[in-house]
Amino acid sequence: RLEEFLKKEVDLELSTLPDFEERVIDFSEVEQLMNSINTIPAPCAPVINPQAPNAATGTSLRVCWGLFSDDTVECYQLCYKPVSNERHSDEQAEYMLKVKETYCTITNLLPNTQYEFWVSALNASGTSPPSERAVYVTAPSPPIIKSKKIRSCENAALVCWESTDINPVDSYMVEL
């Protein structure tokens, strides 16, 4: 309001001493203070997507999320931790990344392991509530073929392998 008032031309005739006639009033501090007032609200919670097909390797996962509002967002804070079935799962180490996009590929993960992910949006006003948590799973590590146990004949072959994965694997695909 002050800025609008100061833009108006007011025709006042005041009798002042000559010392004050040439004085220029500097409103730059007031203008700077008014510009520093932040009127952007903190963003709403993002929505994390479920794991997409082919979004995992044995050591990496691609996580995607979205923001379904017109909120101003400067960056996102992606958090994750391995899922543990033990009683002390709250003590599991949590990791945090700052990301500019609405996706991120996390590397250096363990094969055939479940990870829990959640994300928050950040802007100058603050941090959004976290998204719902989503569980993603890395791909199993490739099995090791036991070459000494391979047997074959004219119409058949016997191939044996073993898995180094701790968690059970649903199925294997053998390609010839």
TrEMBL record:
This is FSD2 protein. PROSITE patterns: FN3. It comes from the Eukaryota. InterPro entries: E3_ligase_FN3/SPRY, FN3_dom, FN3_sf, Ig-like_fold. Residues 46-142 form the Fibronectin type-III domain.
